Amino acid sequence: MEKESAEPRKAPRPALRWLLVLAWMGLIFYVSSRSQLPTGHGALGEAVSFGGHLSEYAILGGLLRWALSARAGLLTLAIAVLYALSDEFHQSFVPGRNASALDFLVDILAASLAIAALPRLLGAIRRSRRSLARRP
């Protein structure tokens, strides 16, 4: 097994980080513009929809947190909230879709959890890597 080089990895450039944020926002917009999504009906359909909102906005929150400075938690959350609000507004114009306050709240919850958890998760990964690198 090879040891990692002593040189620290360079973080991706801010432009790449923002490109990923914008690409993810574009994907959310595309999914929201679809009249019919294959989520199913009844409780299963609701669970799939709920899971979709959780994953979409957890990823968006994580990408925003990664793109902005670690001290910009409130700005990160504000951007996620405004995007979720615009997404629900956008859905109100899509045939077969509607704006939902519950979906909006789920989006905010998912983004908030990701924004709060990402720094801790990345810190744990860094500590683990350092610990593994020190082993003989």
Describe, in plain words, how this protein is organized in 3D.
With 136 residues, this protein is an all-alpha fold. The chain has a domain at 48-134. The protein has helices at residues 14-32, 42-67, 73-91, 101-134. Helix 1 packs antiparallel against helix 2 (42-67) and helix 2 (42-67) crosses helix 4 (101-134). The longest helix is centred in the last third of the chain and has 34 residues, at 101-134. The chain is elongated. The protein starts with 13 loop residues before the first helix and ends with a helix. The model has no long low-confidence stretch (mean pLDDT 85).
List key phrases describing it.
136 residues, mainly alpha, 72% helix
Distance between the termini: 11 Å
Helix/strand structural class: mainly alpha
Q: List how many beta strands DSSP finds.
A: 0
- Cα-atom radius of gyration: 18 Å
Series of H and E elements: HHHH
As a percent range, the share of helical residues equals over 70%
What amount of the residues lies in strands? under 5%
Mean pLDDT: 85
Uncertain spans: none
Annotation field: number of helices = 4
What is the overall silhouette? Answer: elongated
Give the biggest sheet: none
